[in-house]
Amino acid sequence: MEKREMICINCPLGCILSVSRNEAGEVTVSGNTCPRGAEYGRTELTAPKRVLTSTVRIQGEKGRVVPVKTANPVPKEKIGDCMEALKGAEARLPVQIGDVVLENVAGTGIAVVATKGVEKELIMKELCSDIEETEQWCSEIMEHVRERIAQGNTLKGTGAYE
Length: 162
Ligand code: SF4
Hints:
Blueprint: E1 2-7, E2 16-21, E3 27-30, H1 35-46, E4 49-50, E5 53-58, E6 65-70, E7 74-75, H2 79-87, E8 90-91, E9 100-102, E10 112-114, H3 120-150
Parallel strand pairs: 5-8
Antiparallel strand pairs: 1-2, 2-3, 4-7, 5-6, 6-10, 9-10
The protein binds iron/sulfur cluster.
Iron/sulfur cluster (SF4) binds near residues 8, 11, 32 and 33.
């Protein structure tokens, strides 16, 4: 007889399930408030699955990624293979929420879909705001340097040119 206790993660109630399997392979679940809990306990004992969330690189956009998840839960023992497959995957812009980024991840028959839309314009906007921040920072430094020179101070001791 195999027996396990687990928390049902299907809703915030978090029922504590007691799941057991006898010698004949029959599974019984108790502690569940609804049928979803019974199904969860049965699957968790016999063939646990998880929805995998991760990110995928965007083609041609160095350092940029799009968040993704598997469209359905994948077998727990396949999570490592799925992560490996995602490392080599690339999304093409524009990406809309729900777009399939990778079909049949790691041979599971399950697709990986985007959980956020990304467009070229958005990336350009982010890059431009970075440039604006950098320009602002540089002009503040230059102002500080001009003030010191005007006051007859050297830049020695500031660490800026040492
Ligand atoms: S058994 Fe039903 S009520 Fe209890 S946590 Fe699971 S889904 Fe929620």
